[in-house]
Amino acid sequence: MKRNKPLFSLLTSTLLICLNLSTVVLASTDAFQRAQVGSIGLLKDPWEILYAPNGKLWVTEQSKGEVSEVDPQTGAKRKLLKIEDVYPFVGQAGLLGMDHHPNLGKGVNEDWVYLTYTYQSGDRPFQRLVRYRYENLNDLGQFVDPKVLLENLPSGNDHISGRLKVGPDNKIYLTIGDMGANQFGNKCKPVESQRIPSFEEIQQQDWSAYKGKILRIDLDGSIPSDNPEVSGVRSHIFSYGHRNAQGLAFSKSGYLFSSEHGPKSDDEVNRIEEGMNYGWPHIAGRQDDQAYSYCNWSSAR
Ligand SMILES: [Ca+2]
């Protein structure tokens, strides 16, 4: 949690220590320290950063389609994976979220890493969920044996979201945004965050209604049998009415939280519960009488 302290107090409680040319640590009486890992330019456009079981950082670089291991002490960087068919579509597309199975490295043959990225099919971008196996030979790990779990998911050039977490229930949670519909270059496309897929769409594996949703996915890509029914239809959808939920985290007690970008205001942190509607595009932030009103430009085509 960020604590607000007067600037003067913060300055007087901090001590700048230079460890070496590439590392600067800002020590303070606070519980947090800030350090620069490696040189400027070490990473191009990092999108997901997580701790691997060996204490190294695993980082996705969005436009390069690469996953690297970075030593948080020295900044040494080593490539683990390059995904060749990542589609560097303009805007927010590319290699996005990543998480690993909680049992990775525990010797129980569940050394799985999950990633989501944009690819091209025909002339359109889509999002894909893939699984790799982490193989550790002589302390030099690599990602091998790719397997596509789910594809033809909505993608685009804006508000793709793409945050991915493996929950304590061993399900994959994946955020999919509203694709920036109803604004800027996408102003003629309607926001579909409230659209619920029909039974027939799900039967036909048509995932086009997944825009503006948080998905809950079995580890093999299928629809969990205990997912909520929304308007009578069970699908990968766990919650809906989202704009651009780029943050996803589980608390120690198992609650799922998500941060979400608002329309120039009303950024949100939500506790995500199954089957719930989080309001977009009819409500931004709290439901109140403040300035936000939904102007559906796409309906004026
Ligand atoms: Ca909302």
General description of the model:
There is one protein chain. By secondary structure, this protein is mainly beta. The chain has a single domain, classed as TolB, C-terminal domain (Neuraminidase, 6 Propeller), CATH 2.120.10.30. The protein is built from 2 helices and 20 strands. It has a 4-stranded antiparallel β-sheet, with no helix packed on it. It is globular. The N terminus is likely disordered. The protein binds calcium ion. Calcium ion binds next to loops.
Q: Strands, helices and their partners?
A:
Blueprint: H1 7-12, E1 14-20, E2 23-28, E3 34-35, E4 46-51, E5 57-61, E6 66-70, E7 77-82, E8 95-100, E9 112-121, E10 124-137, E11 140-154, E12 161-166, E13 172-176, H2 199-203, E14 213-217, E15 229-230, E16 233-234, E17 237-240, E18 247-250, E19 256-260, E20 268-272
Antiparallel strand pairs: 1-2, 2-3, 4-5, 5-6, 6-7, 8-9, 9-10, 10-11, 12-13, 13-14, 14-17, 15-16, 18-19, 19-20
Bound molecules: calcium ion.
Calcium ion is lined by residues 268, 278-280, 283.
